[in-house]
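To the team - calcium ion complex, inputs and output below.
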Amino acid sequence: MFNARSEPGGTHLEVRARRDALVIFGGFTALLILFINIEAFEYVVRFSDGHESWELDEILTAMMVLPFAMAIFSIRRLREAHLELDWRITAEERAHAMAMHDPLTGLANRRNLTQALEKAIARADVSPLTLLLIDLNRFKAINDLHGHQAGDELLIESAKRLQAHVGSNAIVSRLGGDEFVVLLKDVANSETILPRIEEISASFDEPFTLNSGSVSMGASIGATTVDTSHISAGTVLSQADAAMYKAKLRRSNCFHFFEAGMEMAAIRRAEIESALRKAIDEGRIEPHYQPLICLKDNRLIGYEVLARWRLEDGSLRMPDDFIAIAEETGLIGDMFYGLVERAAADVRNWSPELTFAMNVSPVQFSDEWLVERILQILTKAGIAPGRLEIEITENALVTDVAMARTLIEEFKKQGIRVALDDFGTGYSSLRHLSELDFDKLKIDRSFIHNVAHNESSQTIVRTITSMAHNLGLQVVVEGVETIENALSVMGYGCDIGQGFLYGKPMAKAKPYPEAAATDEASDDDDEDGGGRLAHSA
Ligand code: C2E
Ligand code: CA
Ligand code: CA
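Output:
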């Protein structure tokens, strides 16, 4: 980058203007001295008198005026040079600002943050700091669905929300993509910092209003507090990143503080990503089946398909440890199709009245061939679309209601049923429920695990069930682990039960109630033992 100020004697333009003025002035003085010495003026007068017809007096007058014109010309050149200098200084300042700020949001950029962080770390022994790494949830899905314009709007609005909630003694920066960092420099103690992080996290719960409509996004926040100057900025950032990743795994808007050992997890995350890619290619993501039971007559009606990653050593990795990575890296689509294909091959051998339910991630909403490709797989396997059920989580719904509506309609048109999953954990409104054409509603297992003894769970299950029935939806209860809970939900009129009581997810769909009676010792395929209670009609 050029530097107009540091050039000795000003810019080249100023130097040239000054040199010109000097040359003209010097030449003029030299000529003057020469003319005086040879008494040129008297000679010229005499010569002019002798040649009246040559109009030499006019030429002489013009020559007397010329130096003034030259002087004015030089002054103007000098002024221009000054103006150009000012312009260059402004441009240089602008370039400097650009080098330190994110052009889209105007926030500090990575370079700027690193400098500020290094300074804050140097003082951390006396004045501890907290660093927050904020990663927007579902940003990729919204960006893919609504386009880059909407993505930019979201980033700008997120920047505004962050700035509004961090206070004046903080630096907000954008690292790139959908990652932001907040450096809080006035951290009195860990108790005072918690409500501040909670406030920042809560600010992302509110929907974002875009030109194209309203979307809900949320954020995962990793936090780390530094009270020593013996740590590098890079280490502090990777601590926050590791904590953020932990928060991300929970797949809801939340924050997590860094704990020792988490760095390893962050390093492993990159390894998991490439291993997952390989596992998908090699078909090592396998479907496991968990029974769905009609509560009225204790009859098996089908299975939910749950993804399991078979590792090289034969052990299983659970979906909570890889679905989020699959979503983030865009691997979820390939993983899903592979799973549908394998499930379809198994379903062919089942009794024809049995259904199977597949989970669809909101990231897949942007896949315009989703319904078509599923139908292709079903047709190839000779399975009627009516046997498939798609589960969409409540959180997926609030990401983009319009898109969810279109997709649900498409599935329904093809005879594929759609269930609203994890109901009660997200923010969907009653209006969404009545507007969208769901067939079933699955009450989240958190409301079921103690329903026999917890009054508020009872009220929630009862209310949701009667509301769903009024809207013409069937109610599925997840997480039924005990007979007590099963009896409770049956009393509230819930239609379908799922849970360890009826059977855990298993590699081969077993008939019921055999599935419930399966014991770990007797079945290698059953990943975690099967329901211990044999529950029969
Ligand atoms: P989900 O769709 O709510 O699936 C039910 C989860 O509850 C399963 O966990 C299941 O093992 C567990 N569960 C079932 N009965 C009981 C019970 O009685 N007690 C308790 N404590 N838990 C029970 P899993 O298989 O670990 O799956 C976790 C989540 O991962 C699923 O929640 C689903 O959201 C996601 N997931 C699984 N497979 C896929 C997939 O193929 N695609 C997508 N997008 N998500 C998937
Ligand atoms: Ca599900
Ligand atoms: Ca669920």
